[in-house]
Amino acid sequence: MKTAKFWCLSMGDMQILPGSRYRPSVKKPIWIIVLVLFVCVFLICAYIYPLRSSTACYVFPSRGCKVIADQLPPLPAREYTDDEIASHAVIRDILNTPPVSQNPKIAFMFLTPGSLPFEKLWDKFFQGHEGKFSVYVHASKTKPVHVSRYFVNRDIRSSQVVWGKISMIDAERRLLANALQDLDNQQFVLLSDSCVPLFNFDYIFHYLVHTNISFVDSFRDPGPHGNGRYSEHMLPEVEIKDFRKGAQWFSMKRQHADIVVADHLYCSKFQDFCQPGFEGKNCIADEHYLPTFFKIVDPGGIANWSVTHVDWSERKWHPKSYKAQDVTYGLLKNITVWCYYNCNLHNKAYTIFIP
Ligand SMILES: *[C@@H]1O[C@H](CO)[C@@H](O)[C@H](O)[C@H]1NC(C)=O
Ligand SMILES: *[C@@H]1O[C@H](CO)[C@@H](O)[C@H](O)[C@H]1NC(C)=O
Ligand SMILES: *[C@@H]1O[C@H](CO)[C@@H](O)[C@H](O)[C@H]1NC(C)=O
């Protein structure tokens, strides 16, 4: 009873009497309130941010620890090497600087052993479109004899090309470097001596000039002729998840031509570790370098398909080659019509040249 009274008394006293006398007893509730507030704030914080630290996990073991596995940040991205940091910086700047040209042209770059069998056909194709194109010829075996004025004096200094080896890439880079000298060249089309145009010049010109992507064939092939050719010697720059395959013939926008010519880092990996016979594999550099390079540095900038039609249906080392009796009106119609419907509708493959 005494306690109850005392309690009543002290409550009554508090209301009447001046605070000074009772200060010590007022301090206690404030401390408690502060403490409770602090604990509340801590609990609210811990509830809202339950998994940011392992302390939270300690405080709420039953709730937090289970979720922690799902919410942990992904493993930190690999630390890039100095060369990669430098390379990515240069590439990003080039990609962010769109080229300007008052008089855009298409560079037609021919990779051939010698004379071009279809030069007369190309002559007809180019006729009347002077100023909208430029021609470059890389003849790796014999000096070509030219029959078209568009090809005369268009040979660039060339070197031998060994199938499957990096010398093929070297030749492509040599063509690109020569074609880049002309600031008006906006798309760089790589063609073989057996390519023929399937559409007229205007059609191809507008198609290529009004695009902001490159047409580089690229796909993931998990089989022995794709990822099976990958070598771990390419690490850390080239990981198997980025390893791609694709036919060699491309059409590339100017910025991409720039970064291909500037690239030493990734190219050297393919030079050293992607060649026929290395580690008992048959790595063909020209089928993997560009698709893999673009997968790493600008995956959204390429179409993943090429503007050249190649028939791999025979599943051999080389694509189907068309003999004279194969090349009928029906065949050409087939390829172009197939393309007309498929390319525009499904964005699959556009057929402009036949290598
Ligand atoms: C190309 O242009 C389109 C439309 O202007 C844009 O959405 C796209 O991001 C561009 N692509 C590249 C690789 O610049
Ligand atoms: C090409 O493939 C890459 C993945 O390898 C993808 O990121 C990119 O968006 C694709 N490009 C187009 C135009 O679909
Ligand atoms: C045209 O394509 C169809 C279907 O792909 C094929 O059956 C036919 O043989 C082709 N014709 C020629 C002339 O290639």
Automatic annotation (TrEMBL):
It is found in: Membrane. The chain crosses the membrane at residues 30-49. It holds the Pfam family Branch. Signal peptide: none annotated. One of its GO terms (molecular function) is glycosyltransferase activity. GO terms for cellular component: membrane. It is a single-pass type II membrane protein. Keywords: Glycoprotein, Glycosyltransferase, Membrane, Transferase, Transmembrane, Transmembrane helix. InterPro entries: BC10-like, Glyco_trans_14. This is Glycosyltransferase. It comes from Lotus japonicus (Lotus corniculatus var. japonicus). The lineage of its organism: Eukaryota, Viridiplantae, Streptophyta, Embryophyta, Tracheophyta.
